[in-house]
Amino acid sequence: MHLWQAVILGGFYWFSYCGVFPHTLNLLFYQPLTASLLVGVVMGDVPTAMIVGATIQPMFLGQTQAGWVITNDNSAAGIITAAVCISSGMDIKSAMAVAVAVGLVMSQLTNVRMTVGSFWNTLTDRYISKRQYERIWLSTVIYPAFFKVLLYWAPMTAVLYFGASNIGFFVNGLPAWLQNGLGALSSLMPIVGLCVVASTIGKKGYTVFFYAGFLFAAYSGLSGIGIAITAGILAWFDFRCQNRGESLSVNFKGAKIEDALLKAKDLNLATIRLLAFYSHANSFERYQANGVTAAMMPCLKQIYKDNPDGMQEAMERTSEMFNAEDMTAALPIGIALSMEEQKAKGLPIEGTIISDTKAALFPPMAAVGDTLNWATIVPTTLALMCPYALKGYWWPAIVVVLVGAVLCNSQAFALMHLGYNLGNKAIKDLVQSGLINKIMNFFTVMGLFVIGGMISSLVSVTTPLEIASSGVTFAFQSGLFDVLMPNLLTLIATIIIFSLMKRQNVSILRVIYGTMIIGIILGAAGIIG
Questions:
Q1: What are 468's strand-pairing partners?
Q2: Mind listing the pLDDT tens digit for each residue in 273-326?
Q3: CA of 40: how far to CAs of 37, 79, 257, 391, in Å?
Q4: Nearest by Cα to 450 from 194, 265, 121
Q5: For residues 70 and 60, what is the distance between their CA atoms, to the nearest angstrom?
Q6: Each residue of 92-129: pLDDT tens digit?
Q7: Which residues have a Cβ under 8 Å from the Cβ of 205 and sit 6 or more positions away?
Q8: Which of 52, 43, 37, 41 is CA-nearest to residue 6?
């Protein structure tokens, strides 16, 4: 492989984790089927690259970014495997083995990025405290981009240039105990990510819905849309029981938004910023808070142009923890912009109400977006295109991107306008009637149930421990834990991690680092897998 080819492909890998327009432009770089097209163009063999991408793509159809912990690196698997097959003539069977190993090893880079991302949050806080808003682009866009050059671009370039013919050194060079430890870590870290979300939105007395969601998914076997529908029904039932006999209507008649400070152009630009920067500087500590800050800041400058103190308070609210799917995140952000505008106009809205509204809305939006986009539209389109790509055609990759543009990215623009207009019309009556708090409780129930269900359906912590005696082998996983309850070890890990996060004297970062260390130790010792 030529150096220029390795450099370009390394750049593709870097771009796949910049997250620009996730279900269109970024999708082209991230999935094995689509990324293989780019590899084929660079290396001059599109048919072979497409066949490789279509062959390994089914192994990664179930990969989501729930909790923003990547257990398999789709992009690395697609780029490295296709490049190695073209340059060395590796057969498809060996390519599949390489793809699995590469995906597992390279996924650890995202754990590093999400951990280091807390530093970008600290920088953003510093710029806000000093009212240096023009410098926020450094912590939300510029610095993270340069860091990713070192984390993603440089290693991929080196691996491809020096290891295309010796890929086994990279894949199998790690000692077995460390590979086992990293595998165990990949099981535990998604629990940490989702528990961070649950601990953020959870209120006293509502934790039971979190564990109810886990148990429901474990025993029913449902996932995705099934869990979301059940969560909605349960939340509605709780909502009606809590408010039996009360009037829950809000009169929107005569609501006008002619005096709205933000116009359609402003909302469209906010949506573009959201899609371009939302996942660029995220972290385990606050997830996409930096992306939300970058998306909302220009709008907040318009809203609070004559109120510097209000602007600073609003910016502090934007930097709070936020985690939703890239497209559906536009709805709570649009509502938050509307609430900020009403607050700036003098409506007695406490800042905590705006923060609590966002915190209550983003979990169900994450569930809906992950289910609709990551778990339905994208994998279904990829699966439909694989047979055509197996024939060496180039166009299936383009079809995937076009479908993502029409069915996924368009959601963000519609939801941004919907959220803003809904907030403008509804916020006054919602605040005065107290209904907003009841609605927040509804989404708290729904969000906790969905998150619990997502952990059960997406994560599996198991143990390979066995006892052999007199020629009989007893496996703890199948002979004990599976008999007692489905996914029992995952539940135990969830209870421990979630309980630690709820303790006031334990920081989230300590839980993250502790889980990483313990996970590697337990995996290396062969206790969990």
A1: 473
A2: 999 998 888 888 888 999 999 999 999 999 999 899 999 999 999 999 888 888
A3: 5, 10, 51, 14
A4: 194
A5: 11
A6: 666 666 666 777 778 788 888 888 889 999 999 999 99
A7: none
A8: 43
